[in-house]
Amino acid sequence: LGMANKSDLLLGYGTLEGEFAGDLHIFGDCYKTDIIEMAKTLELPRELIEKRSSRNLRPHQTDLDDLGAPWSKVDDALNQLIEGADPESLIEKGMDSLMVHRVSRLIHQNKNKFDHLQIIPLGRLTESIKKAQAAEASSA
Fold it and tell me: pTM of the entire structure?
């Protein structure tokens, strides 16, 4: 099993020996922010949830520095771009232009690079968790 998430796959943020290793990726249809929300729901340790993301390719590197925005904003841009939004329309809505252009470039640069990986289609995990929580609450 591989652990690459949709954000990492779209941006090429990983290595074949690391995040992209494995024949089946259980989080491949979930954005990084979905995984963070799941970790919060599961009440995983705060240190794990709030740890600065990094590909660790050089000392003191962080994804925030590389991408120019926190994952919540990057995932928002990713979602809209893969749904067909034009980068300029996102910038007009107030998104940071450097981040939008960088994310758009990385998507195109890594397009079809990981098509050979099998992904379990979970849809938006956060939405699934919220529906399950609502169903659980209404059953009580």
Answer: 0.79
